[in-house]
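Input chain follows. Return structure tokens only.
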Amino acid sequence: MIISRTPFRMSFFGGGTDYPKWFEENGGAVLATTINKYCYITCRYLPPFFKHKSRIIYSQMEHVNKVDEIDHPAVREVLRYLKIRQGVEIHHDGDLPARTGLGSSSSFTVGLLNALYALKGKMVSKEQLAKEAIYIEQNKCNENVGCQDQMLAAYGGLNFIEFGGNQHLQVHKVTLTQERLKLLQEHLIMVFTGFHRPPDFSKNLDPQVHRELKRTTSSDIVSHQLKEMSKKKKELKAMHQMAIKALDVLNSDDNLEGFGNLLHESWLIKKELSSKITTPDIDNIYDVARSAGAAGGKLLGAGSGGFFLLFAHKDKQKKIREKLKKLLFIPFEFENLGTQIIFYQPNGEGKK
């Protein structure tokens, strides 16, 4: 049995510039970190005692006899890619729910590759895991995904990642003192706004609007954003530059309030990329947080729901929590290990 543990990510700046459609012509960069919330993948070769050959367990349970019968696209395509023909059991667990803006889908793919390579008796680099996850998600699963999530899940830590040109997929570890890193973390609050919509702060919102929002998925949002990309060059170039400016703030001795102000500016620009990114309720949450003392913030992920990141001085956080007491606050810490094999006990039998 093999168990991999792969972190979720928290993207600060540059999201949207990591899509090939953008960076192949314009370049891109993100500033992001991984946190101590994880995706766990358990796998083993399944003994031949059952009517089915393989068992896949996630939010659903699949019993199949052929890889082609697997519904889960990442599982199906990773097994094809690695040419695993023997029956397997794969079990997924996550510390936080999927599709909530933390790169969980890519953490799953990276963690699955890591676990199945270990099952085959192979140890591969973090670079290989990241690049193969990108290839599988973009080219085999045909997902509308960028390139930051896979790199972060594989490498872990606080990173500045460049895309396109000679610097494509260059991961630069952000080296800060422990005191500076702790100070940054102490300014951050993560709140769960809900899967489709948060608690209603605007009592008069048309119910029809909520029904439309509920039908909006992250894939819809990204698809719409990609279609509008040629019209949003100014905004995307500004977001690229903000990633650089934020890195400069972290590397300086300046007050971290500048980081929060940049988050606020970036969020305002991000909302211009697509009409589907935010909702009236999410805007209300942010307005409430700002009025209570938050310097900045942003919705993590594609938009329309999930986790919202707020930046506020410690002295302001109690008031923010009181004002948003209907919401769920998620404690977290930065992590720097990336995907890991945390349990390794191979079967010792079966073809690999």
